[in-house]
Structure formats: C-alpha cells, structure tokens
Design brief:
The complex is a heterodimer of chains A (388) and B (76). Chain A is an alpha/beta fold and 388 residues long. Chain A folds into three domains: 183 residues, FAD/NAD(P)-binding domain (3-Layer(bba) Sandwich); 107 residues, D-Amino Acid Oxidase, Chain A, domain 2; 52 residues, no CATH class. Chain A is globular. Chain B is α+β, with helices and mostly antiparallel strands and 76 residues long. The chains are: A alpha/beta (388), B alpha+beta (76). At the A-B interface, β10, α5, α6 and β14 of A face α1 and α2 of B.
C-alpha cells in the first residue's frame, strides 16, 4: 500500500466500486476503503433492480441473481391486486455476492481495496480536501489523496466534513426494516407492493421473492410517520397477520434517503456518489442502478481530472449527473408526493378500475393513466418523465 | 448555547445492544453528533442538541429519550 493516492474512495458499495473502477480505468492510482470486514455484508437493501440498471455495468450472472422478475403486483388497501406483466424486467439480487463481484471489477481495473478501514476524518491543505484519516485495527492512520470520493452511504458524513450540506431532513428519510423469511408462498417472479395507511403510510410495503421460497419482506416509513409508529411495528403486524409461522433468516434495519439529489455533490477535492449524494430514485426508493451511474460518472471525471492535472474538472460532475438522472429524480419526487398522499379509498379505486382493463392491455402507462383520472395535476409531471 | 433542555444534559440514549448499526439516525442528524463504526455507536455529547429527530427516525425503536440524562462517551 502506498501513502498517497490520486483518488481515495470511501465505501465499497455499488457506487463506490463503480467510482473506483471508472477512475482506475483511466490509469490513475485508486484506493477504496470499506469500514466493514466484508464488502457486500451486511446487506441493507430490498435487492430488486431493473435488468437495464445493472447490465450497463456488469454481465448478468446467475450466481448473484436470486430471482428473475417479470411481474409487478400492486395491492391496494382493500386487497385488490393490480398486476402488470413486464417480460424479463429485472432481478432480485443476492447483494452479498453482487457487491463483491462489483468490487472485483474495480480491483481488476487496478484499484486497491482495504476493508476494516473506518474513515473518521479528512485532511485539508489550503482548505482543499487532501486525504483521509482512518482507523485500521485499532490504529489511527492517514493517507493523502488528490480527490476523495465519498460513497459512505446513508450516513454521508465524509461530505459534511468537506463542508457540503449532506444531512437529510428526517421527513425525507425512509426508515426501513426488512426480514428475509422462508416458506413464503408468493409468485416467484413477481414483486409485490402493498399500499395503504395500515401497512405503509406515505410509502409502500414490499415482498420481493428470492430463491427457494424465501422473500425479502419489509417497508419504509418517513421519520414523520416513525414519530408515531415505527417501521418495526408495521412489519411485526404484517407478519403476524400474514405469515405468522415463517422462519426468519435475516432481519435488518436501514435508511433510504428518499429525496432529490443534494444541492452540491462536488467541491474542492471531494465528490459524493450513491446514497451519500442522495442519488436514490425518490419514487421507488431504489438506489443500486442510480448509485452505479453516479459512481461511474464521478470515477471517470475524477480520473480525467488527474490526467489533465486540472482538479477543477471534478466540479463538472454536478452538471453531468443532473442531466443524466438528477433532473429526472426531481420529477419523480413530485410524482411521489402526489401518489403517496393518496387516500386508501383512492388507491382502491385505482386498483379496481385498472383491473377492468383486459390483462394483455395493462401497462405501467395504463396504471398511471388510471391514477391520473384521480389526480389530473400529476399528468404534467409524468409527461416530463417521458420527455426528459 | 445549543442544548435546549433546561438541564443541559444529554437526554438521548442509543441502546447499544439493540442497535442494528444501519446509519439512519446518522444520516438525519443535523449536528453530525452520532459516531457509527462497524458495530459500535455513540452520541457525541458536545454536539447533540437533544432535538430527538434520531428517535423518530430509528426504524427499530432503539433510540430513547431519557429525561434523567445519559452518560455519553466524549469526543476524543
């Protein structure tokens, strides 16, 4: 290991690994630090992702695909199930393997990786970020870098230390719990989304099938809801009502910053990617694909900045992110605020009228159209998604 | 200057044996007052304002308001 690097990436999730890989592909020196013992573990994620979202970065491989998804089922508060077929749309991942494989692609490109390295501060030179302080096996150490890429997830402390405003308002944090349970008899190629005040107010409850009749079951509620009733209480109720005797294989908590991207995701010597930059799709809460896109853009730009010997180049990352996805997320955010505020009655009506459409004619577009009849002002926002 | 509670004491308690170390509270803390390692968490007394947002954001209810006051690990 060297004592100084061109680029240090903090955090080895999907966006960190993509940042490390795309930077290393430019031939510059890259080190990726991970605070946990393992890359990819513990998994804090529902693990569903679209096929297009991952295949841009890694060849699909059955070893990290737990199930193939070609159906979405939306369940309204009165139990009406609206199903949409999608063809081969996506996967439920085995993240502990997936993240590991992504990190290996970064290593293959030439990045160094160190686990159990807990970054707890930044170094500065003339007010510009110039490296990291970290704890490694009980010892306090430091490393210099020309650029630090913060991929430190929902916590997003590295960016704060660099002077960016990263904390998420508690009302915009989806506070999640999830269990992976066994003996869950649901369609193995269907993602299930439950809506309603009783199951997941202001968000959705999910059942995402995994191999061998297991499934990820969980929900997120905003801190605003959590003030009155925690995500855990909702999950426990759902399980005792629906799957009282299912063996539980894992049980995790997690936070999804379900907001638009931060105002600034780069600064002198610093770039933010993935959850740390709040690059999550605010409508779905999905952050794997968008985080990898953010990571890949940041990594490439950081590499270019080193090669051109022009560190100001990293500031162009904000603009590139916004034109690729950031602006779209702003529209998703408005749609989310429209949809998730629907009353139970409205959800029921949408599901019922959607089901009156012949099955082979049901598309996501039709679902939105049906939703729109109940909330015409959303039309403008939805139109924008397809135009941008 | 920052602690709203009349006593000035730290009144937020994270139950370390029940915490899942997920980082939700860290991400919403306006004061960067929570230190989270792989499996260790504590509130930085000098920064916490007892605002309680972390309590509301904890998905598994392991952050509690303790009106008696809490002994905190200090910022090194």
């Amino acid at each position: 290991m060297k004592s100084d690097y061109d680029i240090i990436v903090v955090g080895a999730g999907p966006s960190g690994s993509m940042a490390a890989r795309f930077a290393a592909e430019k031939g510059v020196s890259v080190l990726m630090l991970e605070k946990d013992r393992d890359v990819g573990y513990p998994v804090r994620c529902g693990e569903a992702v679209s096929k297009a979202g991952v295949s841009e970065f890694i060849e699909p491989d059955e070893k990290w695909i737990s199930s193939h998804i070609n159906n979405f089922a939306l369940i309204s508060p009165d139990g009406t199930e609206a199903t949409i077929e999608f063809g081969d749309a996506g996967y439920v991942l085995e993240r502990r393997i997936f993240d590991y494989e992504l990190a290996k692609t970064a290593a293959k490109a030439g990045a160094e990786i160190l686990t159990r390295a807990y970054v707890n501060g930044l170094l500065f030179e003339n007010g510009i970020v110039s490296g990291v302080k970290y704890e490694y096996r009980g010892e306090q150490k430091q490393l210099s870098a020309k650029i630090v890429i913060a991929a430190d997830g929902v916590e997003s402390r590295v960016g704060r230390w660099a002077g960016l405003k990263t904390f998420t308002d508690f009302r915009e944090m989806e506070c999640c719990v999830q269990i992976t349970a066994s003996n869950i008899n649901v369609g193995k190629n269907t993602l299930y989304f439950y809506f309603g005040q009783n199951v997941a107010p202001g968000g959705y409850f999910w059942i995402f099938p995994k191999s061998n009749n297991a499934a990820n079951i969980g929900l997120g509620v905003s801190g605003m809801v959590g003030k009155k009733k925690s995500a855990l209480s909702f999950l426990n109720e759902f399980m005792s009502n629906n799957f009282p005797d299912s063996p539980i294989l894992t049980s995790i908590a997690g936070g999804v910053p379900s907001s638009i991207t931060l105002d600034k995701i780069s600064g002198p010597g610093i770039m933010l990617v993935g959850d740390a930059a709040r690059q999550v799709n605010p409508l779905s809460g999905g952050g794997i694909a968008s985080g990898m896109i953010g990571g890949s853009i940041a990594g490439r730009i950081a590499g270019e900045a080193i090669l051109r010997n022009n560190l100001n180049h990293i500031l162009s990352y904000d603009k590139e992110w916004h034109s690729r996805l950031g602006k779209r997320h702003e529209v998703f955010e408005r749609i989310k605020n429209g949809i998730y505020n629907f009353s139970d009655d409205k959800f029921n009506k949408i599901a019922q009228s959607f089901n009156s459409i012949p099955k082979d004619k049901r598309t996501l577009g039709r679902l939105f159209t049906t939703a729109l009849l109940n909330q015409p002002s959303l039309l403008v926002d939805i139109a924008k998604v397809f135009i941008i | 200057m920052y602690r709203q509670a009349k006593t000035g004491k730290l009144l937020i308690e994270i139950l370390p044996n029940k915490c899942d170390f997920c980082g939700c509270c860290v991400g919403i803390c306006p004061e960067d007052a929570i230190e989270l390692k792989e499996a260790e968490i504590y509130i930085i007394d000098e920064r916490c304002t007892n605002c309680s947002k972390c309590i509301w954001s904890c998905p598994i209810e392991v952050i509690k308001f303790n009106k008696e006051g809490v002994l905190s690990k200090s910022l090194a």
